[in-house]
Amino acid sequence: xxxxxxxxxxxxxxxxxxxxxxxxxxxxxxxxxxxxxxxxxxxxxxxxxxxxxxxxxxxxxxxxxxxxxxxxxxxxxxxxxxxxxxxxxxxxxxxxxxxxxxxxxxxxxxxxxxxxxxxxxxxxxxxxxxxxxxxxxxxxxxxxxxxxxxxxxxxxxxxxxxxxxxxxxxxxxxxxxxxxxxxxxxxxxxxxxxxxxxxxxxxxxxxxxxxxxxxxxxxxxxxxxxxxxxxxxxxxxxxxxxxxxxxxxxxxxxxxxxxxxxxxxxxxxxxxxxxxxxxxxxx
Length: 283
Fold this sequence. Notes:
Layout: E1 2-4, H1 6-33, H2 42-45, H3 51-55, E2 63-65, E3 75-78, E4 81-84, H4 86-108, H5 119-123, H6 141-152, H7 159-162, H8 182-185, H9 191-195, H10 197-204, H11 210-229, H12 248-282
Parallel strand pairs: 1-2
Antiparallel strand pairs: 2-4, 3-4
């Protein structure tokens, strides 16, 4: 058991809160004002982790916080300080931890694919009047979007992107992902698979540290920026220059950025997987 002195864990908790508040506070202000942002608000609306939960710092399993009595509902007090009741948590969450570990390991085992060019977002507005972000115009218009999708085709391996495809776009996808087959298709080049590291981190919380959850959030936030810059939406009024994947230069730019995100995601996936394995071994 690692023991953190009170001064140290309070400093880490305060630093975590300051880091997270830079993301959370603008979202809460927009929500109070009835405004929305298609990039910055996505992680708070698509994912189920509430801002208050993201703000809460946890040390992770196997750490004792000196002079931290009654630190939280999942903690137990010991003579040395408060620590997570890991055994009780794992009794409730073992199946979830096993499933997450299996998905992370399967994803990491595959070669990364960098040839999708973000066309999943285009497939979500393909030949439909119901546009998800209706407040923002399509750069090429509906006919232009359809022409790009039909010319390039779609190769999306991520079920939680594919399930938002329009009915007419789904048959155009080279793959037909399903929830049951998620472990068989996810690969480490996929923007959404790397964005979802945030989801797996907060689902493992508080068994993993708040620092790891925040690291995964930061990656997901940056990934979302590329996701929408490469989308068919025109977001220049918000300061987002498009990555024009309808051109050879734009596709090359997208693939380069996608590789950079895959490199950033690898150590985070490794840390999550290592945490899962440590929890499973400790049972």
